Amino acid sequence: MTKAVLAFVLAVQAAAPPPKFDSGRAWEHLRQLVAIGPRPAGSPAIEQTRSYIKAQLTAAGVSFAEQAWDDDTPLGRVHMVNVIGTIPGARKERLVIAGHYDTKLFRQFRFVGASDGGSSAAFLIELARVLKARKNPLTIELLFLDGEEAVVEWEGNDHTYGSRHYVDVAKRDGSLASIKALVLIDMIGDRDLRIRRDTNSSRWLTEIIWNAARRLELDTAFVAETTRVEDDHVPFLQAGVPSVDIIDLDYEPWHTAKDTLDAVSARSLQIVGDVVLAALPDIEARLIKGVTLTGRGGKHKQDYRLVKAKKHLRRHQQRLKQSAAH
Ligand code: 1BN
Ligand code: ZN
């Protein structure tokens, strides 16, 4: 390739908009995950699920780490592993986008969790591909959580093992401060998607996401009604990390043998993909103080605003130094 051709290719790549969320791809991931069968924490099937997730992250060019531990459950010690995909951004501070990939253990029937456990994992895999090709102002962490489900009953500490472990480790190793927000995805496959606003979630994050849905005329799926959910976002909220749970709990097949591919749709995955990606610039703007990405001016405008934000931060730091010196 000549220098001129190379420069042209690089210029085209730089100008090209990031790819869109492709629910066809997400659906294929979901199909593969469901085909593995029940995938409870500690099972050989969840090991296989993890291999699939890791292979897909590698294919997307996203590096990952595994966070493994053994946790005490009402059924004894269970081996669990969070998979942490990282897409470096312009800044080290992280926006975490998470979802669980385990399915609830049921011995009475075959539970494959197409929406509950499957949809969140499939969604994150496709999001990895999209965000890898995007210019991200913050580092994005795609967090595949193990052990969300109760091993027996959702009471006491028998739930959210993965998120509690992740937050505990982040507190201990000092990395919690760099986590600026969490967007949690759970049970988004429902064919008849109806996501209520969770009142446990941080208000400003909920506003940004539901506003994005309204802009896209997807407020039939992101409805105005509220609910209160305990899920993997709670340990983050308790640690002071602004968090939002995007979850459709109005799902008849929930925790039944009917949570299969028949009950979910690619369209629902697409809706959530479009809304999350539309909300992202506003979330990032809020997190990078001084930036207002209110316009939809494309890459150059965003770069310009980032430069302005950096300047603003530098000035702010100088003022702080000056006032400390006086
Ligand atoms: C979500 C999917 N959850 C379990 N599977 C969390 C939850 C538990 C939500 C109880 C509502 C009630
Ligand atoms: Zn569940």
Give the amount of beta strand, in percent: 15-25%
Helix tally? 9
For the termini, the CA-CA separation is 59 Å
Shape: globular
Order of helices and strands: HHHEEEHEHEEHEHEHH
The multimeric state of the shown protein is single chain
CATH superfamily (homologous) name: Zn peptidases
- List the uncertain runs: 8-13, 290-312
CATH topology: Aminopeptidase
Overall residue-averaged pLDDT value: 89
Lateral strand order in the biggest sheet: 1-2-4-3-5-8
How many extended strands? 8
The assigned structural class equals: alpha/beta
List keywords for this structure.
6-stranded mixed β-sheet, two-stranded parallel sheet, alpha/beta, binds 1-benzyl-1H-imidazole, Aminopeptidase, binds zinc ion
Structure explained in plain terms:
The chain has 326 residues and is of the alpha/beta class. The protein has one domain: Zn peptidases (Aminopeptidase). Helices cover 44% and strands 20% of the residues. It contains 9 helices and 8 strands. The strands form 2 sheets. Strands 1-2-4-3-5-8 form a 6-stranded mixed β-sheet, sandwiched between helices. It has a two-stranded parallel sheet with strand order 6-7. The longest helix has 28 residues, at 298-325. The relative contact order is 0.15. It binds 1-benzyl-1H-imidazole and zinc ion. 1-benzyl-1H-imidazole is lined by residues 116, 149, 154, 186-187, 229, 231, 249.
Quick overview of this protein structure:
The chain is α/β, with parallel strands linked by helices.
Topology:
Blueprint: H1 3-15, H2 23-36, H3 44-59, E1 63-73, E2 76-87, E3 91-100, H4 114-132, E4 138-145, H5 161-173, E5 179-186, E6 195-198, H6 203-215, E7 222-227, H7 234-238, E8 243-247, H8 266-287, H9 298-325
Parallel strand pairs: 3-4, 3-5, 5-8, 6-7
Antiparallel strand pairs: 1-2, 2-4
